[in-house]
Request: fold
Amino acid sequence: MSKARMFLYLIVMAVAMPGCRWCAEDVPAGHIGMTWEPEGFTDSVLGPGYHNCHGRCKMYLMEVTDVTFNHKMSVLCADSLNFGFDVKILVALNRGDKDRVKAAFRDLKPAKEAGAHRYITAEQLFNTYIRPVVDQESRKIISKYRTDEIVYNRKQIIEEVRTVIAQATKGTILKVKRVTVGNLDFLEVVTKAQELKAQRKVEIETTKAEALKQVEKEKAKLKVAEIRYKTELVEASMVADANKVIASSISPQYLAYKQLEVIRTAASGPNNWGFVPYQDVMNKPVDTSRWTSPEGLMDIELMERIKEAKRMASAEEKKEEPEAKEKEEEAVKKFASEKKAKEREKEKKDDKKPAKK
Reply:
């Protein structure tokens, strides 16, 4: 090859190589692409990188990253009350299903354009393929329950919604990775009713607790009373046993002896001369057989002592009678003598008085 041809070849290559960059379009990371030409879409799904696209060619891009969508819902329940809740769904494009991907490129209108790029977003995919399924299946489940049933069975109902959505979205262009249901929103009247019910429940539980507390107090009192009762029974039994022992050790003779000591003590006062056993209102003597020996020996001795005391008292009275009579006679004589002396003195005074003329 001559030098002239070589030089010409290098010039052509230098001009042609920059021109190739002008004929390529970029597929950015997190996207896949398909080229469109006036005849329609090509058959290849393109990954990230630069791909040949020139003239009237357009590069269509589709988002493939994982995205979470929060879908707010309000469903009319069986009791004609609205129930609101959120369904959060994590989705990602199922790139392995080439046929559905190509169909989505053909069916969906790009959400935005930038030069030769046409963008189909994950939100478009969700609103087209997932949201209608979520709406339909969630309403089917929730609408058959009353709001109060949802309150008491929320875990079961939430799990039912999650399971149905996961099953219903299988085979779509988006792969559902996670479904959560939250932010349960009841009407104010339902919320107040539940609050009142909860308050009543707390009051009932409080009342039960107070009642149980009172029962425990009463049980404690009963236990103390039972212990005290048993203690008193034991003490009474001990006293009774002690009395039996004391009673068995005291003989009738010992009791009679003690009675005589009491009588002797009572009769030994400075103003007492004896002691007479008690007699009742019918003037009947006390039945001493109940408190003396069967033989009556102690009674005989007692009566003899009483009789002796009476005799001594009678003798003293008789001894004092003559002395009293003598004193009385002396007093009479003294009074008579004084009276005569007064009469004589009066006569003398009368004799000394002069006679009236």
